[in-house]
Amino acid sequence: MDYKKEIAEDWNERGIKLSDSGKEAEAIECYDKAIALAPECDDVWYNKARSLSSLGREDEAIECFDEAIRLNFEDAEYFYYESISLANLKRDGEAQEARNQALKLNPNIVAEEEGNEKAEKGRDNPEASEGRLSDKNIIKNELGNNQPGRAFESWSKNTNMKYPAIADLIGIFKWAATTCLFLMVLTGMVVIAMAFSAGQYTGTGGFVAILAFGLGIELLLGLGWLLTKAFSELFQVFIDIEENTRKKE
Q1: Which of 9, 50, 125, 183 is most open to solvent, judged by the fewest CB atoms within 10 Å of its CB?
Q2: Assigned fold of 3-161
């Protein structure tokens, strides 16, 4: 995990704690900071959507649910809670579609989430709920997260990330492309300066030799930039095709 994702996870955890304390507006600010650093993290978009929904900002919540679903089409919770937001806006047809998709991904999603809510309400009475907590609530309690499903979401993302190797490769290729571009500019400036300097002492021959040498380096860097950029886009296309295929199923 790169440093941006690590910082984004910290902001995400802060947001969860604030949300658990009922400070949804402050939680949203933390999620926004996490998204600015790592917009590809679907669980952050989901957490922000839940907080927005808690504030009654359902239109914004649905936009965030949509983004979380775009990034991860296989999480039933995303569809389940989006169906609630849609229903609150009286968009019943869309709400039913989202609910059906949630049930398709997890036929037990409704019972599980309703059970989580009941367990959540009874958490001040441990004896009443002991032994009947779902896996999500067990993980939630271990991590100190009192919002149903969120700790489980974070745990599941860390143990079953989608295309982690390809995502890492895309990041490496993008970094390499940027580095090549930077070196091309820097090399061009240095070569021009050296060529004019050499020309003053060795004449036209030295000037041309330095320029030819610099042009060769520029061509190699340009080829490196072209290849790394092409590979990063190629892998991204692969992920996009996979996502679109899943959405059509």
Answers
A1: 125
A2: 1.25.40
